[in-house]
Write a structure and sequence with these properties.
Helix 5 links the parallel strand 5 and strand 6. The protein is built from nine helices and eight strands. The chain has 257 residues and is an alpha/beta fold. The longest helix is centred in the middle third of the chain and has 18 residues. Bound molecules: zinc ion.
């Protein structure tokens, strides 16, 4: 059952001691490829080195909204320069996180807008992090038409999902939807068209219900796929094929046979 993890951070130092084993387990579990979004400019070269070490890892470069206090204006220029010379599968992850009111929302808007501009400039998809901010993200995407990409770990409403799909975006689902407490999210995913869904682990964060409190890893995407296929009532292999095709199309990945 070939799967694509559309959101993995296994360049994170918490995998330094056993990354090769984590990769091996991922491949054994059927995870053929992983999309690896960036967090901060100082880690882009670490991310590049990690992706260079295995042809199933594809880097995206960007500035994560949760680290907004650490980004500096010249990081945006650095991102443009980096994208001119380094192969990238997408721009990201970028976006808006309003979970903590202390995060500077105005600064987040500025960096997100700039990265949407870079996605347009380099004709790349965009990987969006949106927590308690989906309405603002929709508004900004309406002002930046013609983009495509994914809202990772989708947590908005069904109506917002429909608007995002109309704007050319897919929705990423992973660990959170596997919780028995996630009734609202489960109702939403059941109503969504299969061609708008991609799967993700968000390793090392957001483990699925079978691995709560563990360090999450891409191999657990298998459990996520089983859980979601049960939820929406289709064969796991059908979900795997559909979501892998979606990810291939979204990120313009070479298909592997
Ligand atoms: Zn992430």
């Amino acid at each position: 059952m070939p799967l694509i993890d559309t959101h993995s951070h296994i360049d994170n130092s918490c995998f330094d001691l056993d990354r090769a084993k984590v990769m091996e387990r991922a491949k054994t579990a059927g995870v053929t490829r992983q999309i690896m979004p960036a967090i901060q400019s100082k880690w882009w070269s670490r991310l590049k080195a990690c992706c260079d070490s295995d042809c199933s890892l594809f880097p995206a470069y960007g500035l994560h909204p949760l680290y907004i206090s650490q980004h500096q204006a010249n990081d945006l220029l650095a991102l443009e320069t980096w994208l001119e010379s380094e192969p990238a599968i997408a721009v990201g992850e970028c976006g808006l996180d309003f979970y903590n009111v202390k995060f500077d929302q105005e600064k987040q808007h500025f960096y997100f807008e700039a990265q949407l501009g870079l996605a347009q400039q380099f004709e790349l998809p965009v990987i969006i992090h949106a927590r308690r901010s989906v309405e603002d993200v929709i508004h900004m995407l309406k002002n930046n038409r013609g983009l495509h990409g994914v809202l990772h770990s989708y947590s908005g409403s069904y109506e917002q999902a429909v608007k995002l799909i109309d704007l050319g975006f897919m929705l990423g689902f992973g660990g959170p939807v596997t919780s028995p407490h996630a009734k609202r999210l489960q109702r939403i995913i059941k109503r969504l068209p299969l061609d708008a869904i991609v799967l993700e682990t968000d390793s090392p964060d957001q483990p699925d219900f079978n691995h709560l409190k563990e360090r999450n890893e891409p191999a657990y995407l298998f459990d996520i796929a089983l859980s979601i296929s049960n939820l929406i009532g289709i064969e796991a292999s059908k979900l795997a094929t559909a979501t892998s095709n979606n990810a291939e199309q979204l990120f313009n990945l070479p298909s592997i046979e």
